[in-house]
Amino acid sequence: MKVLVTGSSGLVGSEAVEYFDRRGHKVSGIDNNMRREFFCAEGDTTWNLRRLMSVTRAFEHLPIDIRDRARVFEVFKSRRFDLIIHCAAQPSHDRAATIPLVDFDVNAVGTVNLLEATRQHCTGVPFAS
User: Fold this and answer.
1) pLDDT digits over 67-107, tens only?
2) How far apart are CA 39 and CA 18, in angstroms?
3) pLDDT tens digits for range 9-19
4) 3-state helix, strand, coil in the chain (%, to 5)
5) 11: helix, strand or coil
6) Is the distance from CB of 118 to CB of 84 less than 8 angstroms?
7) Using an 8 Å Cβ cutoff, are 80 and 2 in contact?
8) Cα(94)–Cα(97) distance, integer angstroms
9) Angstrom distance (rounded) from CA 27 to CA 41
10) Helices in 25-109 by DSSP H: which ranges?
11) What is the pTM assigned to this prediction?
12) Integer Cα distance of 16 and 30 in angstroms
């Protein structure tokens, strides 16, 4: 099975990557380390990406921003997924109050980009968020 995990370097996303990789599935992960931008050095997930690269067998990292519709659509056009797990987000309610437009773009627009790419290129594929 080919699985896409967004937010693949984050807490929940990285667990999903490991879970499906351990079961022998090919996993593509989308993550652009926005946590570093949101929370400075304390939020940087590079360490987790490195860890994933060292412990997985069939994991491909794609450094893509889910707000970038063209790149998201290209990923969906060039790879056919059997399952999409959407974990990418701006997770802080406190931070959202100071960056409402960025928060909306990441959480709403990014999700719509993924849903539309799924509708156009992966019809009938389960989408979990």
Assistant:
1) 999 999 999 999 999 999 999 998 777 888 888 999 899 99
2) 24
3) 999 999 999 99
4) 55, 15, 30
5) helix
6) yes
7) yes
8) 6
9) 27
10) 34-39, 46-55, 69-78, 93-98, 100-104
11) 0.93
12) 12
